[in-house]
Amino acid sequence: MKATSLLEGAGSALEMETVSKTFPGVRALDRANLSVSRGEVHGLVGENGAGKSTIIKILAGVYRADAGKVNVDGAPLEKIDPASVHRLGVRFIHQEISLVPHFSVAESVFLGQEQTGKFGTAKRLMRQRAEAFLTETLGVELDGRALVRDLSVAERKLVQIARALIDGQAKLVVFDEPTAVLAAAEVQTLFAAIDALRQAGKSMLYVSHYLNEIHQICDRVTVFRNGTDVGVMNLRQSQEPQVGVPEIIRLMVGRDIDDLYPQRQHTKRKQKALEVTDLDDGQRLRGVSLTVGAGEVVGLTGIIGSGRAELVDSLYGLRKIRSGQILVNEEPAKANSPARAVRSGLALVPRDRRNDGLVLDMTVADNVNLATLEEVSTLGWLNRAAASRRGDESMERLDVRPRGSQAVSRLLSGGNQQKVVLGRWLASQARVYVLDDPTVGVDVGARSEIYRLIADLAQAGAGVLMCSNDPAELLGMCDRILVIVRGRIIADIVAAETDLEQLTALATGGAEAT
Amino acid sequence: MTATTVETRRFAAAAPALRLLLARFPLLVFALLFVYMALGSEFFLEWRNISSILRQSAPDAILAAGLAVVVTAGGDDIVSGGIDISLPAAATLGVGILSDQLVNGRPFVLAMLLAAAAVVAVGLLNAVLVVKVGLTPLLATLASWVAVIGTTKWVINNRRITVDHQFISNVRDGTVLNVPIPAVFALAVLIVFSFWIHRTRFGHRLQASGGNRSAAEISGLNPDYFLARSFVMASLAAVVATLVLTARSSGLSPGIEERLLLDMVLATFVGAAFSFRRVVTVPGAMLGAVLVKALGSGFQLLNVDIFKVGMVKGVLILIVVASAALEAGQRR
Amino acid sequence: MTSTPPSSADTPTAVTTRSGWGRRLVDSLSRYGFVIVFFAFVVFFAVRADAFLNPSNLVNILEGNAVLLIAALAMTLVVASGGIDLSIGIAIDFGGWFAIIAMRDYNLTWASALLVGLLAGAAVGTLNAALVVRLKISPFLATLGTFFIGSSVQQIYTSGGGQVPFREMSESFRSLSTGAVLGIPTEIVLAGTVGLLYFVLLERSVHGKRIHAIGLQRSVASVSGIRVSGYLVFVFIFASATVALSGIILTAGLRQFTPLSGFSYLLDSIAAVFIGASMHPQRRPNVAGTLVGVLFLGVVSNGLNLMGLDFNLRDALEGIILVGALALAFTNRNNRAAEVSI
């Protein structure tokens, strides 16, 4: 992966020097530097609020810097606006995949840069060029006529990349959390595409929370903390992720986080919190059985299309099941709607936090109380003082910042939003927690707090089923890990007896379970 | 990668028969109704009847084309997306002004220009309310509907105006190559709008604005620009509809706008069932208008109570949108 | 009702730039700007039309808009749940129509007739609920379909819209419109009671909280264990039964049922709901706001009337004032600012 065309003294694709930016009340950037050499993949990491999105927005021309210099390809940029940056060959691959569902691949790739012929848009030409680009530059075969809504998430990501690069003018490509929406195996497809771009001489800036990925794909990494750069590491020299990654974390948080994952004493209890037998939906799930004991944290991993999402949906009551049984606290649970699932004692923390996690336009207190409104009411009359008090207590306990349970949830950062989602269920008497990618888009600091909360839940006797794309997190948190492939649980391993490589191999079907 | 792709594809095609049935169900219902009508009345398939259907449906089809443009630019979520319910009111205002002016002896060209200016002004008002003020299109066009209806009443004193003008009569009764002139106008709108929306760079971007607002923004487009343009374009359709409507009822009969509104919305969303991608399109909307009118005509030939036709339309809109919703559910 | 794209997860900065006291001042000015304009109109009419501030005229305004208020409250509930109900006109019609039929053709007492009317409205709501919840049709199109069907049913059974008179209506039924309780006209009492009920339901009860949650972000409500389908069924049926009451009051006042007369309340009630929503910090439909919206519409209509303007001109002015008022209420607030991420 690290075979590069990086030449010493080849010059810089991007130089940002002593950039400062102050928002009312917040110093977002304080003389920050960022430099990307020609032809390298350069990582950018930092906790939320460290200033990495601010500096990228300055580069994109969305914000104007108060002070500092920006050079693109050796030429100083005087006035930065989206158009001029685009002209200089800087392209942004946004975290979210925004495509028109009913557009074809070709139409999506050429959106905003349509080719026209004698009779309006040249549909066939655009299709041929889109297909050729996807095959030759990104290494994926896609029908230019296929509709976006029928594509997998990874395919959509590639379409998004193709859209940014099809004009051939790209010199510096900025990836913002490109893998947040992808499963482990799909990440490799993306990395292959990034590698292909590197071979083609493009420079890339790669922003991510996933330090393992940074380590795998990047040549160098710049670490941001408190609005400035605190270090640049050359990753090609430290070959071992075990050495490199903790070093990055140390720079990011300014202290050692040995205890990213809390120490857990596993006390085995006999009671089963969740038991699933022979779950079958006639399509993606083919007889799934699993158990989660009280006080146990069980991990679940599987690539996209493995049936993982469908299994979670079935537990949530969002998916019709044909046969099989779900027992919660050893009592049969009818899972035909989320409301039923919740009443049978499940707590659901969904993956898509923005759409499914919080009512963004309601206050934090409202969101905390949403699942347990009857506990702060008498005969349907809402006791607003009690509701607000419970919101405050929850924020205190979860260390949600900024404090103030009457704040609108939209204004919180991703990590704090996730804490509020967890807070909703802590207020309930749920005994089984189904957490679907609970730390996506959450920075390291908040992440360790969320891990601590999960550990506390298990300590208190709840069963936790933790579904994740991040094998490291599963290894750190879980007692057992389940691997689902093609609708079946193919492995049920004690976490202490496995490692990253084995897990990835199992999930991608590269190894047999032992 | 390739493995997962294949897997996804196969799943998408897991229940193709059911999906296809759901997708084609509205078409099936239409087809069966037409077969039934053709069998019930020989006259139904005669050119005389067909040309009468075309003549009658031209105003609805033209307005539906306008609405289709707004829905395309604003998205098909009716509450928060693009919709222009003021189109029939704008056209009615145009009819009122045109009729009033002609009756008062104003030359046709001048009268038509005045009417067109008023109609386009409504489109501009909508554009300002939506893009500058930030009202949702539903609310904005609802408000302008109320304002325009009130203005129309005031302009024409809330009376029936009968126009006896050579040009209007020609539009009403004339044909070109056996095709009624109103249908020729509709055809012109079809060609111009289809090309505009479905074959040009501008149209492609306008579609993207409605299909996914943030996708358009990220591609460097300004969705509000396209939404504003769509309201103006729709009002241009309403200008054409003004002329055809004036011809259809030989002037202005107050209160036609409500029926027009419902038929226009019905036609536009029924039309989505006729497009390959199940989205609102200009040709689909116009075809929808013709077919809805044909149903009405067919029921009349079969001596079905005119009031029951409203019921059929209601059931029809429900069948169409229910099968679209259920099909979308299958796709997931 | 537009959902602006949520700002990127890790950009608290976007928030900071927006607050600040200057912005807040502009915000609250535009938030209450509408109320200011409302009072400006009141003052204007008070000056231009002497009779406007007469207590009897003020009572007239309240009484004349009681029916609209009830319809608008029902619409508030539906819009709060994330939907819209275009068929309230049908429920208004059916309420009055069936109450009259119950008394005229079946000799039922006024109380039973009232109940029959409410049930007829609830039946309309049940159809809407079935279409929206069962068949998953969007509320706009589902209730539009109901509107077509309901209009057609009325035309079929009234031979194309003929009036259904009932002159021998019992005094008790008639007093639903013309009577008074403790000197207050019954219509105002009824509308006030419905208003209080809706306020408690929507703004002070757990059910209201859940309905708002469903309307704002349905999937969140769902995974929080809220029975979304159950609440939507309730909302559509309860709203339709509520507006049936307006229909009953109308027929009681006129001693006859005029088919398709309910339609005229549709646009005004939607306008009132959104005027009200514009005054909420998160632009949520709310009971107090709807009340202000209805009063505004009522005051404008009454004032223009008192100024002795031509009937047709008055209609035009009313419409133009509505456009202006909405424009003012929404300007500067949440103006679909394009929030570019990265």
Account of the protein in words:
The complex is a heterotrimer of chains A (about 525), B (about 325) and C (about 350). Chain A is an alpha/beta fold and about 525 residues long. Among the domains of chain A are: about 10-90 and about 170-255, P-loop containing nucleotide triphosphate hydrolases (Rossmann fold, 3-Layer(aba) Sandwich), CATH 3.40.50.300; about 100-170, no CATH class; about 270-345 and about 430-435 and about 475-514, 3-Layer(aba) Sandwich (Rossmann fold). Chain A contains 17 helices and 24 strands. In chain A, strand 11 and strand 12 form a beta hairpin. In chain A, helix 7 (about 210-215) crosses helix 8 and helix 14 (about 415-425) runs parallel beside helix 15 (about 445-460). The longest helix of chain A is centred in the middle third of the chain and has 16 residues, at about 185-200. Chain A is globular, with a radius of gyration of 24 Å. In chain B, helix 2 (about 15-40) runs antiparallel to helix 14 and helix 4 packs parallel to helix 6 (about 135-155). Chain B is globular. By secondary structure, chain B is mainly α. The longest helix of chain B is centred in the first third of the chain and has 28 residues, at about 45-75. Chain B has a two-stranded antiparallel sheet with strand order 1-4. Chain B has a single domain (about 25-330), classed as ABC transporter involved in vitamin B12 uptake, BtuC. The two termini of chain B are about 20 Å apart. Chain C is an all-alpha fold and about 350 residues long. Chain C has a single domain, classed as ABC transporter involved in vitamin B12 uptake, BtuC (Orthogonal Bundle), CATH 1.10.3470. Chain C has helices at about 10-20, 20-50, 55-65, 65-80, 90-105, 110-135, 140-155, 170-180, 185-205, 205-215, 220-225, 230-255, 265-280, 285-305, 310-330; strands at about 165, 180, 185, 255. In chain C, the strands form two sheets. Chain C has a two-stranded antiparallel ribbon with strand order 1-4. In chain C, strands 2-3 form a two-stranded antiparallel ribbon. The interface between A and C is large, with 61 and 42 residues.
Summed up:
The complex is a heterotrimer of chains A (514), B (332) and C (342). Chain A is α/β, with parallel strands linked by helices and 514 residues long.
